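Checklist before submission:
- one chain only
- standard amino acids only
- sequence pasted in full

Submission:
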Amino acid sequence: MTTSPDTQLPAPRTAPGRGTVQPDDIYEPPPMVEAPADGAIVVHFTGKDHRTAEFSFEGLPLPELHEDLARAFAARFGKNQLNTVASANGQWTVILRLVRFLGTLPCPPRSLSRLTGAQLKRYRMHVQAGMNDRSLFEHFKLVHSLLRKIPADQLRPEVLDAIWQVERVDQRRVRSKPGYDDATFHKIVTAARSSVVDIYQRIREGERLVARIESDPAQLTGEELARGAELAEIARTGRVPHVPQISDNWRSANLPDNAARVRTARQLFLHHDDIIPLVVFGVAVTGRNAETIKELPVEHRLLDGQAVALEIVKRRRGADRWFEEVTWDIGRPSDRLKSAGGYYLFCERLARRGRQFSRSPLIWSVWTNGTKNGKGVTGGHKNPFDIRLNFTSTLIDWVRTRPELRDLPDFVLDLNRLKTTVDRINTRAAGGHLPSSTRSNTQDVLFRNYLAGDPDVQDWAEDVVTEALEDAEDAARTAYRQARRATGELKVLTGPVDEARRDAGIAARIGLDEETVREVLDGDRDTAFAACTKTTDDCRDSFLTCFACRNAVATASHLPAQLALLDELADLWEGTDRETWWRRFGQAWLAINEDILPRFTPQERAAAEASKPADRVLPLLDGPSEEDTTWV
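Returned file contents:
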């Protein structure tokens, strides 16, 4: 089987007042089955997504069967059957396995009219080793679908009975895998976000260097000037120069250093390894299938700077219902990586420079170190999904690179399970009724095919909402009290900071040395919402844990940020699942309202209220993903 490397633009679509494009002369579609008298039979396939493939029977046994099987194969192309290269590949794999097995029989059938029911049973016994019930059912579903395209008068009665019988496994309807638990989901999203931020910072640094050398090269000197000039030339031409190896061995001294060349290219362009975390993060943010994320189009419309409208592809919905118009909210600048529209524009910008050379109709464009399949013309730039939707790298390889996922025993990343988890979270947050803006399936389909087998959904559905809220709040209070008993509690210095500096006995009262107290009052030990007195090693916990830590000290200077945090937590209350809200933010909420604010006077609280920061403070909890996004 061979596939075409050329990605065609979507066919022109009709609209009111715009008819379909018609050929100038009599149109004769190319034959799907090419059966030359002196060569192997070839089946030509064109999917609904305009990807093409060729399937050759060359080298297969039993040539007497080839033409009938080829025409049956081609008859399966089209509406509600084989619409993609991937689905055609699945059917072709079954054909290969069936023909090769029949060729090993002592008396193989020399035509399909001689195929017997006993031979089909022997084939079933041959393939079922190593297959589970679901795989066996899917395999024979393709066998039967193929043979049903053979005229009935060419098949024996027992074969017809076999291919039209209903499989018992179909009655059971094997359900999809359940989603991940909330803790695992959080780790997956954290790992993906961290990778995405690394990609963003890497390309942003290269883009800024190109901008500096184009605007005022006199500001750059030495190595920075040389690197900037090289990147500017790469940005202009799209061509990444070869880098010679640095070696004392004269035999390898002139050989190209491919790894160094890739590192140079990745300063401006996406690489194959970048696509996996971007797609994983896209599934988590948008709640769409991975196939939809892989085929996000370049063409879009901005709606008043608040939303983006585009046409997405949703496979497996039926041949006439692949395309869907969606409008995705962009969100505020600090929340761009938390909204579907912000994610789309973020990725569109990351790959924009590469698309100038690959001419990809999708937002994705990667640079690859090679010249095959047309990459020599584009300088190595290509649409990573021009031929098929498979990843070039593997999910396993990416998972192994992420420290956030290493402590998960026997963890396997499944993007379908990830989407199911997002559906579950959205459904639970909306009280069981998903609004259309966040739903990619009808509610019946969503529960029957995606959420019905999820144990978390089953448990949640059995709870009463009010009881769940009370339990979540009680759990947060209990966890907060336990944390205070185990690690001590946050120290609070009341009164103006200037008066505390003049208080000679303050160090003894809070159990700290004079030098540490001076640094706390001068702001030298400030974190996001308190000061930290820990000096032994770096703390990697969230800033929220400061509210239940004996190493933290809160003063009047921290009140403005703490009050701003309370405002943001109040805003999140309406749009967040209550259990999730209490689990993540409950301890901070309780610490500020019950342990910190009561120790300050109304005048001090009013002064802090007037000096609250205008910028959002909660994004600090999510790390570098909420950094300056002006470049995007």
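Reviewer check: Residues 182-215 form the longest helix (34 residues).
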